[in-house]
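Hi U.,

Before I forget, here's the chain from the pilot set. I'm dumping it here mostly so it's searchable later in email.
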Amino acid sequence: MRIDIITVLPELLKSPFEASILKRAIDKKLVEVHVHNLRDYTDKSYNQVDDYQFGGGAGMVLMIEPIDKCISSLKRDRKYDEIIYMTPDGDTLNQKTSNSLSLLKNIIILCGHYKGVDQRVRDTLITREISIGDYVLSGGELGAAVLCDTIIRLLPGVLNDETSALTDTFQDNLLAPPVYTRPREYKGLKVPDILVSGNFPEIEKWREEQAIKRTIERRPDLLEE
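Structure:
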């Protein structure tokens, strides 16, 4: 998989891809992540990529020209399955979306900034709009990093145990059950006996029951879906 991220602040995207699972996936060549500075695609003075809104109003808007040039340049080298715009009013990211995106080959992610992008970008260049939640960030970079993490961890070979992602919260519209590790007892707090019984069919039954119970208590809306 290849992910190209377009941003006005590429430095914000360095850290997430230089550590942990994401770095390991890149080092193992399971994914390529390329960050493109939008300012490299403008011919305006001072590398300007934004301008005032037509009609007046507070806040600057990213111009269509440098975005179009950047996306067009990338598309000359390969075909992209999705061109995603990170925006607060996009479809809320969920596990189903991450699962489907992890099956794609090439993705572009455009990070919004300021008051957003010229609407003509959204009308003609973007194929999908995604939000990571009902709140506003200073830019789309952190949202893009979150999206990349949710996708990359699903790629075969990224996790040491490939079945781990299949039992994550939300995979079956259920929250994950409680988990425990050593010591078996700590300050009078004991691990449930079933988990140390060695009866794996009963353990799986217990985990499923606990997952359903936790979902009913915390996120009943997931069961309605």
